[in-house]
Amino acid sequence: MATDVFINYKFSGKVKDGQAFVERIISERRMNRLPRDVNVFHDPRTGNVYVETSRGRAVRPLVVVKEGKSTLTKRHAEQLIKNEISWSDLVKQGIVEYLDSSEEENAYVAFFEKDLTPEHTHLEVSPVDIVGVATGLVPFGNHNQGARLLQGSKNQKQGIGFYAANFSVRMDMDTNLLHYPQVPIVSTILHDLAQYDKHPSGQNVMVAIMSFQGFNMEDAIILNQGSVDRGLARSHYFKPMIAEELRYSGGLLDEIGTPDKDVKGYKSERDYRFLEDDGIIFPEATVHEGDVVIGKTSPPRFLNSMDEYNLATSSRRESSMSMAHGQEGTVDMVYLTENAEGNKLIQVRLREQRIPEMGDKFTSRHAQKGVVSLIVPEVDVPFTSTGIKPDIIFSPHGIPSRMTVGHLLELLGGKVGALGGRYIDGTLFQEENEKDMRQELLSYGFKENGTETMYNGTTGEEYKVQIYVGPMYYLRLKHQVRNKVHSRARGPIQLLTRQPTEGRLKEGGLRLGEMEKDTFVAHGASLLLKERFDSDRTILPISEEAGITAVHDTRRDKYFCPVNGENADISNIEMSYAFKLILDEFKSLCIYPKLELKSKY
């Protein structure tokens, strides 16, 4: 019976023996007579053969296995190390081939060479291949729950570190730089391949897994004040401020310089005190909220025909770049250049030292993230019999439900590596044996399970339990409380809606949604909603009969209805200004929004 052949899912013909046809294509590809990205799939249910050559498919390399033996030999490995052959030579020789998801359906892939049987068709180049680069950086990752492994890779991308060697001459948006980055004691093969030692993003810290007066509940962590004072997780935050001389129609343009006193919107002399003769701030100036960084004036927004010929200084407006609400820092660098249009461009980079504080976020590489809930004075921190004090106290309740056993193994491995003066290999599926690490720890005079006797830092009493303690790689994340802390009582409102402005830097309000409303009601604080939800309260005169907004004649101080005149009954109704706006919208669409008023009593 003939077999149908589909090329890129289009019927192209029939062959007598489908399986033999598939084997022939694979054989020709391995002999380098067909392109390496041609894949073929024999569907056992329908008997059809599908040949794929289309672009955009994900393909991955696998080692070819013949009769239960890998075609990649030790001789090949030695030649690769000596650079006698390359990866592409292995592909040309048919030792390595690329499979897509459809051809993989016909493949039987082994993880390790020791697992090979005559049934196997392929062997993984390395078991780490099943994860991405960031996930491969998680040590002992095969001991973690899948979802946590994924989160662990995401968390590492948010870590503060040494992001670029030329950071000092770059003008990046909102970047952080860790002062004392370290290479992890427990690393993986990916750390070597990605040259992680050139751009590390964490530090090896002593971690004790214990409760501390309940302050590390709900994933919170506790820091040692002494460690913070000695530079633990200290970093700098960089933020640019950019201004350019824009060109407008009619030959008008912005001017960078210290504004004159008769310019519309002139602030005060104190606000401009850091500006030099060219209207730009000088390096190493310490600036706070409201201080002007780059002085600039612009032409008026709206011009009539006469103004174009009569542009006095007083008609210009102030448009300087100044520090927003709650911002502060030191001017790190000033760039003077021009943009693509040839306009003058000023870039000022501000820096601010960030010392870890309560509310800052930390994580291990196993998605065990938490915020700092307490920074304990060093004298009160628990200590071991050898006088070691932990930098971080981590809650034991974070482990059972998350099932991140890799977190515990990393602590054990870190202890062995620190005592033995070597790096521990925690590569996915190829990690060092736990039993061997336990035996090595025992040989150094410690308990093989990694626990130690600890003493209460306040009273000096011995804890009646053994505490699991050791070094671990921790990352400080870019989510810092100083960038997020936000509160407001009264402040600016928008011109259109008369509601509070939006956003932290604009001194905006905190918007409450339906769910936030429910929490206040559940707390028995429903009266608070009366205050919260009337930020744009307004009183509108409404004609009772016509149900439409009445008009106020200010000259006679009288109200009259647009429909029924002065004889109509007018009532003052309290409503949201946003509702008043939508009534106006309806009127503009020639819709009559009639309000039916009910008696209050």
Question: What would your notes on this structure say?
Answer:
It is a single chain. Helix 8 packs across helix 9. By secondary structure, this protein is α+β, with helices and mostly antiparallel strands. The protein folds into 5 domains: 3-125, no CATH class; 141-234 and 358-476, DNA-directed RNA polymerase, subunit 2, domain 6 (Dna-directed Rna Polymerase Ii 140kd Polypeptide, Chain: B, Domain 6, Beta Barrel); 239-354, Beta Barrel (OB fold (Dihydrolipoamide Acetyltransferase, E2P)), CATH 2.40.50; 486-532, DCoH-like (Alpha-Beta Complex); 537-588, RNA polymerase alpha subunit dimerisation domain (DCoH-like, Alpha-Beta Complex). 18% of the residues lie in helices and 27% in strands. It is extended, with a radius of gyration of 35 Å. The chain is built from 13 helices and 33 strands. The termini are far apart. The strands form 9 sheets. A 6-stranded mixed barrel has the order 12-26-13-24-23-29.
Question: Which architecture name of the largest domain does CATH use?
Answer: Beta Barrel
Q: Per DSSP, what share of the residues sits in E-state strands of 2 or more residues?
A: 25-35%
Supply Rg.
Answer: 35 Å
> Number of helix segments?
13
What is the helical fraction, as a range of percent?
A: 10-25%
Query: How many E strands?
Result: 33
The coarse silhouette is extended
CATH C-level of the largest domain: Mainly Beta
Protein topology:
Layout: E1 3-7, E2 10-15, H1 18-30, E3 39-42, E4 49-52, E5 59-66, E6 69-70, H2 74-81, H3 87-92, E7 96-100, E8 109-110, E9 122-124, H4 133-136, H5 146-157, E10 175-178, E11 186-187, H6 189-193, E12 203-209, E13 221-224, H7 225-229, E14 235-244, E15 255-256, E16 286-287, E17 292-294, E18 296-298, E19 317-318, E20 321-322, E21 329-338, E22 344-354, E23 361-364, E24 369-376, E25 383-384, E26 392-394, H8 405-420, E27 424-425, H9 434-443, E28 451-455, E29 462-476, H10 481-484, H11 514-522, H12 527-532, E30 537-543, E31 551-553, E32 558-560, E33 570-576, H13 577-588
Parallel strand pairs: 1-4, 8-9, 11-27, 12-26, 13-24
Antiparallel strand pairs: 1-2, 3-4, 5-6, 5-7, 5-9, 10-14, 12-29, 13-26, 14-22, 15-18, 16-21, 17-20, 18-19, 21-22, 23-24, 23-29, 25-28, 28-29, 30-33, 31-32
Helix pairs in contact: 8-9
